Amino acid sequence: MQEKTAAVVLAAGKGKRMNSDVPKQFMLLREKPVLYYSLQTFQDSFVDEIILVTEKGEEEYCRKEIVDKYHLTKVKHITAGGTERYFSVANGLEAVSEDCAYIFIHDGARPFVTGQIINDALKNVRVHKACVAAMPVKDTIKIADDQDFAVSTPRRDLVWMMQTPQVFQASLIREAYRRLIKEEEKLRTEGIQITDDAMAVETLLHQPVKLFRASYENIKITTPEDLVIADGILEKRV
After folding, report:
1. CB within 8 A of 9, min separation 6: which ones?
2. CA 49/CA 93 separation, integer angstroms
3. Fewer CB within 10 Å, N- or C-terminus of the chain?
4. Does residue 1 carry a pLDDT above 90?
5. Are residues 129 and 99 in contact, defined by beta-carbon separation less than 8 angstroms?
6. What is the pLDDT of residues 126-180, one digit of tens each?
7. What pLDDT, on a 0 to 100 scale, did the predictor assign at position 13?
8. Residues 23-57: pLDDT tens digits?
9. Is residue 106 scored above 90 in pLDDT?
């Protein structure tokens, strides 16, 4: 019998770089909200339950205009996010059923996660306890100083772009976030900024995280140009 799994889908961002009053996850892409696409993919997958984390005050909109409208029956809870991404994740984790063995954490602004990526994530998390969808960079990367002068060049074959889903053994990610919230002020004082879920388990639990190849199409909608690229990806998939 397959272990029970959950997906926490984050849709609480304001999307300031989009230069729009409409949050990026609610912008329309081929007449459907960006958020719809990833939710539908998890709906069609083996994942047992979906927790949708949205901006406080937008819960009812998400329920009516996305979850109910598109019959996303696996969405079990819609919960409000926090002021920072890690607070939103923590709120989402609290809503996940206690008997889930693995938890997927995914950005709602990444509409092109696929069933194959989700399947590959499960295979990897079963073995490694923590894994992240990612892709090797295509360009040479430079490390700059605070004056924007290049100071070093890491080996390109060792540099990856992090994506989502980021997937973890449930007990592992719950403990990492319990510690993160408890030690938040101490970490800030030490200049440590936790920017993704993998970093939380790496920093606080010293847990190695496996990177697995996802897709260069698994983009995050961040700027207006990304919507043009996203439309092209959808055109190809039709």
Report:
1. 35, 38, 39, 42, 50, 51, 52, 53, 92, 106, 107, 108
2. 12
3. N
4. no
5. no
6. 999 999 999 999 999 999 999 999 999 999 999 999 999 999 999 999 999 999 9
7. 74
8. 889 899 999 999 999 999 999 999 999 999 999 99
9. yes
Domains of the chain: 5-233 (3.90.550.10)
Pairing verdict, β 150-152 and 160-169 = unpaired
pLDDT exceeds 80 at position 19 = no
Q: Tell me how far apart the alpha carbons of residues 48 and 42 are, in angstroms, rounded to a whole number.
A: 9
Side-chain half-sphere CA neighbours of 12 within 13 A? 27
Query: Do β-strands 49-54 and 143-144 pair in parallel, antiparallel, or remain unpaired?
Result: unpaired
As a whole number of Å, the end-to-end CA separation of the chain is 34
Q: Which percentage of the chain shows pLDDT scores above 70?
A: 96
pLDDT exceeds cutoff 80 at 15: no
Q: Is 143 helix (H, G, I), strand (E, B) or coil?
A: strand
116, 50, 163, 66: CA torsion to nearest 10: 100
Helical ranges in 8-167 per DSSP H: 34-43, 59-62, 85-95, 115-128
Tokens 């950005």 sit at which residue? Answer: 107
Cα–Cα distance for residue pair 46/151, rounded to 1 Å? 46
What rounded mean pLDDT belongs to the chain? 94
Residue 43 corresponds to which tokens in the numbers above?
């709906």
